[in-house]
Design a protein that fits this description.
This protein is α/β, with parallel strands linked by helices and 249 residues long. It has one domain: Vaccinia Virus protein VP39 (Rossmann fold), CATH 3.40.50.150. Helix content is 29%, strand content 22%. It has an 8-stranded mixed sheet, covered by helices on one side. Strands 3-4 form a two-stranded antiparallel sheet. Helix 2 runs parallel beside helix 3, helix 4 packs across helix 5 and helix 5 runs parallel beside helix 6. The chain starts with a strand and ends with a helix. 33% of the residues are buried.
Length: 249
């Protein structure tokens, strides 16, 4: 498959075209299903009123029924484990994903290598009383080759130099496009410690292109999937502008 390209399609369509172990490293943060809520003890789909909690997507409402959410993301994770040598899967437990994520961890626990806690430094105030602020997110690491051990065969850090709690502030977007963007520093940390030049990095939920941007900047090749044309344009513009800045430096 052609590299350094973001494909305008569902990631499941892209994944079907990829051969086993053709991706060196996957870095992704899938939709959290933020708009699936609970009303009178049952799940209900509604749009979040408070702008600070909402993630703007132009192609879907981020409120799948739990069974549908679990089925889709389980299929994605299964395919990622097939095609990718290492998978960094960033997620946060919210009402609309909590039960699904715990089930997926159980279903794919055989491939679960380790877990990183991403400390964002600040817990956004919860939507309602009785709910703890979410200051951290989880990054689950899956590996097919040797998951029974916590030792990474494809790692590039010295013994005792890399903790499993990463304190990296989450960026605040001012353009109103995607409030779920993870920071460039987070991608840099993964690439620096778990990849080398010319590796192929895949992001099945590319969004506005942070994974591709950092991969390109660090001499890695990238492949992405994204259903939003608007986001693909933003991502490509970001990469293009970044290249111009590097040329001027």
């Amino acid at each position: 498959m052609k590299v350094n390209l973001i494909h305008h399609e569902s990631c499941l369509d892209t994944l079907k075209k990829l051969d086993d172990d053709s991706i060196d490293l996957t870095i992704t943060s899938p939709p959290y299903n933020m708009n699936l809520r609970i009303r009178y003890g049952k799940y209900t789909s509604r749009q979040i009123i408070k702008e600070e909690f909402s993630t703007k997507y132009d192609n879907f409402d981020d409120n799948l029924p739990l069974d549908e959410y679990n089925k889709f993301h389980s299929n994605v994770l299964e395919e990622l484990i097939r095609v990718s040598k290492l998978v960094f899967y960033n997620t946060q437990l919210v009402t609309g994903s909590k039960r699904s994520m715990f089930k997926m961890i159980g279903d794919y626990g055989e491939y679960l290598k380790d877990r990183v806690v991403w400390d964002k430094g600040y817990g956004q105030p919860a939507m309602q009383s009785g709910v703890m602020n979410s200051r951290f997110e989880d990054i689950y690491i899956f590996e097919k080759e040797y998951p029974i051990s916590r030792m990474f065969k494809r790692s590039y850090f010295d013994r005792g130099t890399l903790d499993n709690v990463w304190s990296i502030p989450r960026p605040r977007n001012n353009d109103g496009t995607n409030l779920a963007t993870f920071p460039e520093e987070l991608v840099e940390k993964i690439l620096e410690n778990f990849s080398v030049d010319n590796d192929v990095v895949y992001d099945p939920f590319m969004g506005t292109g942070t994974t591709a941007l950092v991969a390109s900047r660090m001499g890695r090749r990238y492949i992405g999937s994204e259903i939003s044309k608007e986001y693909i344009k933003i991502a490509n513009d970001r990469i293009k502008n970044d290249h111009k800045q590097l040329e001027l430096a």
